[in-house]
Amino acid sequence: MLTRREFVQTAAAPALLRSQRKPGDKPNLLFLWTDEQRADTMAAYGNTRYRVPAMNRLAAESVVFDRCYVSQPVCTPSRSTVMTGLWPHTSGCVKNNIPLRGETRTLPELVADSAYRTGYMGKWHLGDEIFAQHGFEQWRSIEEYTAYFSAGRDRGARSTYHEFLRRLGYQPDAKNNFSRNFAVSLPVEHTKPSYLAQEASRFIIENRREPWMLFVNTLEPHMPFTSRFNDLHEEREIELPANYPGIPNTSEPAWYKRRREQSKQPGGEAGWRRLIRNYAGLCSLVDQAVARILWSLDVSGQAENTVVVYTSDHGDMMGSHSMYAKQVMYEEAVRVPLLMRVPFRRQRPLHVQQPVSHIDLVPTLLDLLGRKDAAAGLPGQSLVPQLAGAVRPDNYVFLEWTGDVKDSGEGPSGRTVISPEGMKLVLYDTDQSLLFDRRRDPGEMNNLYGTTSDRHLRARLTEWQKKTGDRFVLPG
User: Fold this and answer.
1) Which range is least confidently modeled, 2-16, 262-276, 416-430?
2) Quick check: is 94 in a domain?
3) Chain Cα centroid distance, residue 226
4) What is the total count of domains within the chain?
5) DSSP state, 369?
6) HEC states along 393-420?
7) Is 207 contained in some domain?
8) Whole-angstrom Cα distance, residue 145 to residue 47?
9) Strands across the sheet with 414-418, in order?
10) Where in the sequence is the domain holding 93, given as residue range(s)?
């Protein structure tokens, strides 16, 4: 039973929390993204089995981009595109752990409006992981990557999540670090997604009287594929991908075969089912954090004036073609969810079926934040017309990969083009190239390279390279 004072305080709190800003004022931006979440992990993309009610609700209120592709299917290069609107070969972030150059501007630096409060929370993976930078005032970190700190940085410094766990009484399990395996073993309320939800909610409520931009990036559902939610989904709720085991009918890059060998699961099919259950549980772990963050928008009266974006830095094979993780050009690794909710535009929920790229995110957000002029010189295009149902003519999507044949962990270098109709050409410099007709072969089982003309797609790639200054030499 509540006392009278407690009742009055509880009833009054929402009114005290509510923002006085109105739709039409400078809009807020809440950018939610994950690490390694493939597109088909929520109902909007055909998966009604995963228990992700917050994601599903957000999708039902959003424009859903059915075919959104990353710029490169690995962390640092993809993140550089999301944050700057530049191709990896332009920003220089062509491989993991290459820092984003100080002079390269991110979205807050492009907006360049001192009225905005700015925050970055979660995994960064673009250099100097735990230090505020690139136009972000408030910084909450969950990873360290101390080996990649710039010269002069304190390598003894630790993430704010590390300090959070120390305050709770936990002791580091690995050389003054909390390992990822340790973090995912904790009670849900002490995991990285929950910590980020707490900090993001605080930021949203504390800054309710000013415009703000907040990026929140969870590590999950990235490996290690385990958590307290491993058994949240029952065995009967889990289906193997349609292209499992998915050994191609025709030629495949040797690099992909090595990836398949590295992905072998103990117990075969049963092992894959166990892994997918764990992955589904990680998606649910993220979902409970998303629910809390969106609640803070609602309770503070800011939802109607906030652009909400949801996406991921790349996908995960998770059993497709008997692989897990990313680094290949199969659909499951390069296609990610993309949701956009813009209430003040009075947009209706819809699905955009044309392919789009992460290269378009920064121009789109600049457009929505009233700074369309700041997108001059960026290679992407605003997706704002698509939010109203417009169809972009002749829309091709491009991807890149910078590997190293001496390093079996990175494979060959290559370039990819995907046509609006679903033709996909992947050209590798030192390995087997690929050509798929996804209209007839959605599982990408039949490599048509060498048997069907790819002249038109090659011409598109060449045109893109000239336009973007890409010096990769296309093979053959």
Assistant:
1) 2-16
2) yes
3) 19
4) 1
5) T
6) CCCCEEEEECCECCCCCCECCEEEEECC
7) yes
8) 34
9) 397-401, 414-418, 423-428, 434-437
10) 26-390
